[in-house]
C-alpha cells in the first residue's frame, strides 16, 4: 500500500516557562491510501500533539524538534507557512473534539463550510455555496439549503459536529485527522457520527487518522491501531491482533480496565496502579515501568524500542503473550446485599415519589417574564435500599443530574417527596435537615471544581466534621488520616492543595470527603466520566470496595451504561425527565423491555472488533427533543422505531415484567406479566 | 435477600496491578499514585509567577522608591513647606534647591515629597474604601441573587451613567480640604466597578461544585461566604485594589489641577501641576517635569503591579 502520510521519528516538545514537556518522543507512524489508523492513548500521552504536529498547529511553545512528516513524499516539517496554508484544509483536514468552540460563533455555517472552497479552489461565491450545500447534505444535515444562514448556536451538538465534518470534507482532503470526534457527544449521537464517518470513508477513499481514548470506537472502524503511552509509541499492529494478541503490558492493562456490559460485577476490574509519568522529567528506562506488573531490572535501566516484524511491533523487553485478561482472572470482591425480589416490609433507605422539577425560562433583564419552562424531571419515583447500588443512566439533558441534586437537597422539587428512611427531607426544619445530611452525601463529576482550591486536603476532609460539630480536633485529624489510607493516598497528601493532584487523585479525595460523615447513601454524579480509562477502573474498584466496607448505598448517575452496569445492582434508565425502565443490571442487559434501553445498549462501542464490526447498524435516529416542549404521550416516540398512534396520545405507565423489572412502553420488547398495570403513583420498584 | 461473600483470592506470582491484587476492605493500599514532596500553595505559586514578571518587579521597585522618597525623604532633606519666600520664587535648579523653587518660593524637591505623601495616602485610602464597599455590595448582590440582585445592579448602572467627575467636583467644593475627606469622596464614587467585578466572581463561584459540596455537608450561608467564597474571590479583590490606587491618584491629581484638591498648607501633585501650568510659558520646566514624571511613574508602577497580579492569580489553576 502506498503511504499517504509517513511520520518518522517525530519528537515534539512544548516549552513552558519553567520546563519543557517532551510531549511526543520518537514517534513513527504511517497511513496508507484509504486506510483508517486508530491512534489510542490516555490524555497527556501525546496523541493530540502528534495530530497537531502534522497540521503545523502546535500550541504556543510547541515545536517539532526532530523527525519528518511526509505527505505523499513532500516533507511538511520546515515547510514555509505560506506553503503549509495551502495544504491545511485542502490536503489534510482536521475535525476537532469540541464543535462548540471550533466553529466561529459570528459566522453562518454556510460561510464557514464555503470558506475552504474559496480559499483553496478559488471558486466563485456561487460555486462555493453550491459546494457547501452539497457537503452539508452529504454529512446528513437535514434541509441543508435552509440551514446555510444559521449560526452555530442554533444547531444541536450533533449537527454542529456534522458541520465540522462538512468543513473538513469540502476540499476532498487526502487525509482526515479526527481528534476525538465523538467524545463530547451522547452515545446515540456518537453512533450516528461514527456511522457517517464510515460511510464517507467508503465513498471517498480518504485516509483517516482517528485519534481517540476509546478502544470501542477504534475496534469498530480502524484497520490498524497504534497505542501511545507517555509520549512514546508502545505498540502498533492490526486492529484484530491488538485486541486478541497484544504484546505490550500497557495495551493489555488498558483493555482489561474497560468495564464490559457482559462482565460479572462481583469481580474487581483490572486497574493499572499509579498515574502516568510527568513528561517534563520522564523516568529513565521504559516509561511504563513504574506501573507495569511485569517490570524487571532492565526495564528501569534502558528504554525499549519498537521491535518485531513489520505487521506487529511493540516497545517492550518482556512482551506479554497471554492475550486479553479475562474478568474471570480478577479477584472477587465481597458485595453488599443484593435484592432479587421485592420486599415490601422493609422501609427503603431512600424513596422518591413523583418528583417533579421545572426550571423557568425567562427573558428580559428586569421583569424576567416567564416564557416557558424546562421540564427537567417529570414525575420520577424510585427506591434505593440500604447497601444497594442503584444506577441511573440517560443521555445529557435527561434530568438525571437534577434528580441527584434534588435527592441531596441542592434543588427543591416543585412537587413530590424525597423520603430518607421514611422521613420527608424537604419538610424537615433547617436544623434537622442539617443533621440529616450526615446520611446523605454527594460525589461530584468535575474533579477540578469540587475541591476548594484555597483549602488544604486536611481542611477539606475536616470540613464536614466541623460543619456538623462532630469530634474534637484530634479525632478529626485521626479520621482524615484513616480516610486517606482508605482511598489509597499517602498521608503526606493531607498537607497539599488540590491543584497538586491529578484528576483521579482528586476524585479519591472527593470520595474521602463524602465518606467523612459515614453516610448511608452517596449520590455519585458521573463519578468517573472525567477520568482516563486506567484511572477510572481504579476509582470504580475503590468505590466498590468502600461500599462494602462502609455498608452504604450508592446512587450512581452516569451517561455510560457500561460503568453503571459494572457498579450497580439495579439500573434505572431515564429519558427526557421520565424514568422509562428499571431492572436488575443483568436483566436490563440481557432482555431490555424499552426500545430506548435496547438502543442505548446497541450504540455503546465495545472494545471487541468482532462484535463491533458485525453489529447491526440500527442506531437510535434523531436527537433529543427540547425539554421545553416535550412530545405528547410517550416522550421517546419521536425517535422510536416501534412508535404508533397511541404513543402520541397516551402516556405509557410502568408495567411489571417480574423480578423488579418495570418499563413504561406501549409496545415493549418483552411481554409484561399478565394483567399487572402498576401505576406511576405506586412506588416504582 | 442474598449475601455475596469474598470467594477466596487467586494468588499470582507477579504483581498484576490493582485489579488482581487482594484488596482487603479498608486495607492500606496506596495505589492512588504518589504526590510531589514539595508543598506549593496557590498563593505561593502566584507569588512565584509574579516574581518572574520583570515589569512587576520594576513597578514594585518604583513604588517602594516613591514611598521611601515621600516618607523618609523629608527627614533627610529638610525644606520649609509652610511659608514660602517670595524672594526665592521661580529659581532654577541649583545649589540649595536641587529642583528649583516654584512661584511662591517653595522648594520644589521638598514639595514633591510632601505632595507625594498626599497622593499615595489618598490613592490607597480611596482604593481601600472603594474596594471594601464594592466587594461587599457585589458579594451580597451576587449571592442573594433574584430580584435584589436585579435592583442592586440597576442602581450601579444608574450611578455609572452619571458623569462621575461632575459629582466629585460638586461634592469636593463643599467638603474638600483634608486627605481623609478627599479619600472618602473618591472612594464613595469608585466602588461601582469593583462591585460589578466581585458580583461576577461570586456568581461563578457559587455554582462551583465545591460550594455545592459544602451545602451538602450542611454548611450555612455565613460559612459559605467566609470559608469558600471570600477566600476564592480575594485574588480578584487584591488585583482590583492596585488598579484602584492608580485611578485614585490620577483622580486626585485632576482635582488638584482644577483647584479642588487639598487646601493650604497641604499640597498634592495636582496642585503643583496647576501652579506649573501658568509657569510653563516662561520656560520654568523644573516645575512641570519632576512632578509630571513622578505622577506617571507611580501610576504606571501600580498598573504594572496590577497586571502582573492578575496574570499570576489567573494562571494559578492552569499551571502546575
What this model shows, in words?
The complex is a heterodimer of chains A (685) and B (320). Chain A is built from 23 helices and 25 strands. By secondary structure, chain A is an alpha/beta fold. Chain A has a domain of 233 residues: P-loop containing nucleotide triphosphate hydrolases (Rossmann fold, 3-Layer(aba) Sandwich), CATH 3.40.50.300. In chain A, the strands form 4 sheets. An 8-stranded mixed β-sheet of chain A has the order 6-7-8-3-9-10-12-11, sandwiched between helices. Chain A has an 8-stranded mixed β-sheet with strand order 19-20-21-16-22-23-25-24, sandwiched between helices. In chain A, helix 5 crosses helix 7, helix 15 crosses helix 16 and helix 17 runs parallel beside helix 18. The longest helix of chain A has 18 residues. The radius of gyration of chain A is 26 Å and the shape is globular. The C terminus of chain A is likely disordered. With 320 residues, chain B is mainly α. Chain B has a domain of 206 residues: MetI-like (MetI-like fold), CATH 1.10.3720.10. Helix content of chain B is 64%, strand content 1%. The radius of gyration of chain B is 29 Å and the shape is globular. The N terminus and C terminus of chain B are likely disordered. The interface between A and B is large, with 89 and 61 residues.
Amino acid at each position: 500500500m502506498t503511504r499517504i502520510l509517513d511520520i518518522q521519528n517525530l519528537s515534539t516538545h512544548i516549552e513552558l516557562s519553567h520546563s519543557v514537556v517532551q510531549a511526543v518522543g520518537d514517534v513513527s507512524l504511517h497511513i496508507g491510501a484509504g486506510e483508517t489508523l486508530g491512534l489510542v492513548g490516555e490524555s497527556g500521552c501525546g496523541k493530540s500533539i502528534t495530530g497537531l504536529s502534522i497540521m503545523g498547529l502546535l500550541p504556543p511553545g510547541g515545536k517539532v524538534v526532530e523527525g519528518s512528516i511526509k505527505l505523499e513524499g513532500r516533507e511538511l516539517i520546515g515547510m514555509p507557512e505560506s506553503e503549509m496554508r495551502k495544504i491545511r484544509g485542502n490536503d489534510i483536514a482536521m475535525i476537532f473534539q469540541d464543535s462548540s468552540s471550533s466553529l466561529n460563533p459570528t459566522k453562518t455555517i454556510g460561510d464557514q463550510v464555503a470558506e475552504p472552497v474559496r480559499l483553496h479552489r478559488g471558486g466563485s461565491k456561487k460555486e462555493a455555496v453550491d459546494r457547501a450545500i452539497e457537503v452539508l447534505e452529504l454529512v446528513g444535515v437535514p434541509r441543508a439549503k435552509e440551514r446555510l444562514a444559521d449560526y452555530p448556536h442554533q444547531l444541536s451538538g450533533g449537527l454542529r459536529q456534522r458541520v465540522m465534518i462538512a468543513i473538513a470534507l469540502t476540499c476532498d482532503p487526502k487525509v482526515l485527522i479526527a481528534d476525538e470526534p465523538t467524545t463530547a457527544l451522547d452515545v446515540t449521537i456518537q453512533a450516528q457520527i461514527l456511522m457517517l464517518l464510515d460511510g464517507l470513508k467508503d465513498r471517498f477513499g480518504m485516509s483517516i487518522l482517528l485519534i481517540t481514548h476509546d478502544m470501542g470506537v477504534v475496534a469498530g472502524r480502524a484497520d490498524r491501531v497504534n497505542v501511545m503511552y507517555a509520549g512514546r509509541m508502545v505498540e502498533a499492529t492490526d486492529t484484530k491482533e491488538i485486541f486478541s494478541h497484544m504484546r505490550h503490558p500497557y495495551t493489555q492493562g488498558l483493555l482489561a480496565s474497560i468495564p464490559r456490559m457482559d462482565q460479572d460485577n462481583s469481580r474487581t476490574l483490572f486497574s493499572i496502579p499509579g498515574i502516568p509519568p510527568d513528561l517534563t522529567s520522564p523516568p529513565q528506562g521504559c516509561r511504563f515501568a513504574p506501573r507495569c506488573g511485569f517490570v524487571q531490572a532492565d526495564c528501569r535501566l534502558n528504554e525499549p524500542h519498537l521491535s518485531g516484524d513489520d505487521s506487529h511491533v511493540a516497545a517492550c523487553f518482556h512482551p506479554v503473550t497471554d492475550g486479553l485478561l479475562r474478568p474471570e482472572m480478577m479477584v472477587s470482591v465481597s458485595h453488599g446485599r443484593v435484592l432479587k425480589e421485592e420486599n415490601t416490609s422493609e422501609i427503603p433507605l431512600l424513596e422518591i415519589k413523583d418528583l417533579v422539577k421545572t426550571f423557568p425560562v425567562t427573558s428580559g433583564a428586569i421583569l424576567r417574564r416567564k416564557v416557558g419552562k424546562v421540564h427537567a424531571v417529570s414525575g420520577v419515583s424510585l427506591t434505593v435500599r440500604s447497601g444497594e447500588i442503584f444506577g441511573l443512566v440517560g443521555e445529557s439533558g435527561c434530568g438525571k443530574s437534577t434528580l441527584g441534586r434534588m435527592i441531596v437537597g441542592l434543588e427543591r422539587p416543585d412537587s413530590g417527596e424525597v423520603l430518607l428512611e421514611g422521613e420527608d427531607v424537604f419538610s424537615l426544619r433547617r436544623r434537622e435537615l442539617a443533621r440529616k445530611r450526615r446520611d446523605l452525601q454527594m460525589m461530584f463529576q468535575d474533579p477540578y471544581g469540587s475541591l476548594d482550591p484555597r483549602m488544604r486536603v486536611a481542611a477539606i476532609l475536616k470540613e464536614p466534621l466541623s460543619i456538623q460539630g462532630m469530634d474534637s480536633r484530634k479525632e478529626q485529624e485521626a479520621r482524615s488520616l484513616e480516610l486517606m489510607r482508605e482511598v489509597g493516598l499517602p498521608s503526606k497528601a493531607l498537607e497539599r492543595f488540590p491543584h497538586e493532584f491529578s484528576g483521579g487523585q482528586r476524585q479519591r479525595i472527593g470520595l474521602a470527603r463524602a465518606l467523612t460523615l459515614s453516610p448511608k447513601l452517596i449520590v455519585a454524579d458521573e463519578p468517573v466520566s472525567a477520568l482516563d480509562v486506567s484511572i477510572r477502573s481504579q476509582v470504580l474498584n475503590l468505590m466498590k470496595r468502600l461500599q462494602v466496607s462502609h455498608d452504604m448505598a450508592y446512587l450512581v448517575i452516569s451517561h455510560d451504561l457500561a460503568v453503571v452496569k459494572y457498579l450497580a445492582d439495579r439500573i434505572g434508565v431515564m429519558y427526557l425527565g421520565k424514568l422509562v425502565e428499571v431492572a436488575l443490571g443483568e436483566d436490563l442487559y440481557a432482555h431490555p423491555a424499552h426500545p430506548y434501553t435496547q438502543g442505548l445498549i446497541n450504540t455503546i462501542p465495545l472494545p471487541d472488533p468482532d462484535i463491533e464490526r458485525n453489529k447491526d447498524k440500527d442506531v437510535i435516529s434523531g436527537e433529543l427533543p427540547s425539554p421545553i416542549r416535550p412530545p405528547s404521550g410517550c416522550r421517546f416516540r419521536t425517535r422510536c422505531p416501534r412508535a404508533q398512534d397511541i404513543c402520541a396520545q397516551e402516556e405509557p405507565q410502568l408495567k411489571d415484567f417480574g423480578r423488579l423489572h418495570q418499563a413504561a412502553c406501549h409496545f415493549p420488547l418483552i411481554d409484561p406479566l399478565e394483567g399487572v398495570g402498576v401505576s406511576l403513583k405506586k412506588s416504582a420498584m | 435477600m442474598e449475601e455475596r461473600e469474598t470467594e477466596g483470592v487467586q494468588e499470582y506470582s507477579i504483581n498484576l496491578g490493582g485489579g488482581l491484587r487482594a484488596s482487603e476492605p479498608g486495607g492500606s493500599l496506596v495505589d492512588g499514585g504518589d504526590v510531589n514532596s514539595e508543598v506549593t500553595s496557590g498563593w505561593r505559586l502566584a507569588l512565584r509567577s509574579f516574581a518572574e514578571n520583570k515589569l512587576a518587579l520594576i513597578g514594585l521597585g518604583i513604588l517602594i522608591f516613591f514611598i521611601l522618597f515621600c516618607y523618609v525623604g523629608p527627614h533627610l532633606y529638610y525644606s520649609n513647606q509652610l511659608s514660602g519666600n517670595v524672594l526665592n520664587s521661580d529659581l532654577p535648579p541649583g545649589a540649595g534647591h536641587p529642583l528649583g523653587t516654584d512661584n511662591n518660593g517653595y522648594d520644589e524637591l521638598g514639595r514633591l515629597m510632601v505632595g507625594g505623601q498626599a497622593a499615595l495616602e489618598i490613592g490607597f485610602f480611596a482604593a481601600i474604601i472603594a474596594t471594601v464597599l464594592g466587594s461587599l455590595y457585589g458579594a451580597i448582590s451576587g449571592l442573594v441573587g433574584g430580584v435584589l440582585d436585579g435592583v442592586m445592579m440597576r442602581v450601579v448602572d444608574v450611578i455609572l451613567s452619571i458623569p462621575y467627575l461632575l459629582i466629585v467636583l460638586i461634592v469636593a467644593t463643599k467638603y474638600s480640604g483634608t486627605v481623609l475627606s478627599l479619600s472618602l469622596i473618591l472612594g464613595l464614587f469608585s466602588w461601582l466597578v469593583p462591585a460589578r467585578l466581585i458580583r461576577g466572581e461570586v456568581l461563578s463561584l457559587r455554582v462551583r461544585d465545591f460550594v455545592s459540596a459544602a451545602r451538602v455537608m450542611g454548611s450555612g450561608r455565613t460559612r459559605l461566604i467566609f470559608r469558600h467564597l471570600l477566600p476564592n474571590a480575594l485574588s480578584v479583590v487584591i488585583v482590583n485594589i492596585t488598579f484602584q490606587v492608580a485611578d485614585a491618584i490620577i483622580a486626585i491629581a485632576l482635582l488638584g489641577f482644577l483647584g479642588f484638591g487639598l487646601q493650604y498648607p497641604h499640597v498634592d501633585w495636582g496642585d503643583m501641576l496647576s501652579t506649573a501650568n501658568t509657569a510653563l510659558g516662561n520656560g520654568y520646566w523644573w516645575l512641570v517635569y519632576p512632578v509630571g514624571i513622578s505622577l506617571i511613574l507611580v501610576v504606571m508602577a501600580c498598573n504594572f503591579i496590577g497586571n502582573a497580579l492578575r496574570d499570576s492569580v489567573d494562571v494559578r489553576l492552569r499551571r502546575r
